[in-house]
Amino acid sequence: MEENVAKEKMSQLEWYITKHCLWQYNSRGWDRLIQNERILTKTKQILNGENAKEDDSTSDRYYWSEAMSLSRAFKKYFPWLEETSKEDIAQILNLLKERMDHTMVHASLNKELTKQQY
Fold first, then answer.
1. Cα–Cα distance for residue pair 28/52, rounded to 1 Å
2. 46-72 burial, b for 16+ CB within 10 Å, e for fewer?
3. pTM exceeding 0.85
4. For residue 105, what are the domain limits?
5. Pick from 109, 97, 106: which is nearest to 14 by CA?
6. Tens digits of per-residue pLDDT, 40-96?
7. How far apart are CA 69 and CA 72, in angstroms?
8. For residue 11, how many other CB atoms are within 10 A of its CB?
């Protein structure tokens, strides 16, 4: 997929997350990075028809449930996903993770996110 098109589609998904998902507001930067990685990876797997459950741990069930909810919402509000190839979905979701990491942690003005003692 052309990079500009992928970024436009990624922006639509980012908009949904910033308006509707509370998990993005975890108070620690390292938690936000882990959540982005696990939730968005599982969302990508679900959207591509892959198995997103790794084990039956509490944390895996949490990330899986968030990813299920997110993938349902994405399919509902962004019908173009149904016509998007697995490779393009992977590209868009990888861009989304990079963007979320940047805006939620690395470029955040909240200094508490980067305190080592926290």
1. 25
2. bbbeeebeeeeeeeeeebbebbeebbe
3. yes
4. 3-114
5. 97
6. 999 999 999 999 988 889 999 999 999 999 999 999 999 999 999 999 999 999 999
7. 5
8. 14
Spatial CA neighbour of 46 closest among 90, 8, 14, 7: 90
Task: Tally the domains of the chain.
Answer: 1
- DSSP collapsed to 3 states, the chain: CCHHHHHHHHHHHHHHHHHHCHHHHCCCHHHHHHHHHHHHHHHHHHHCCCCCCCCCCHHHHHHHHHHHHHHHHHHHHCHHHHHCCHHHHHHHHHHHHHHHHHHHHHCCCCHHHHCCCC
Token code pair at residue 97 = 């993770």
pLDDT digits (tens, 9 = 90+) for 16-48: 999 999 877 777 888 899 999 999 999 999 999
By residue count, the chain amounts to 118
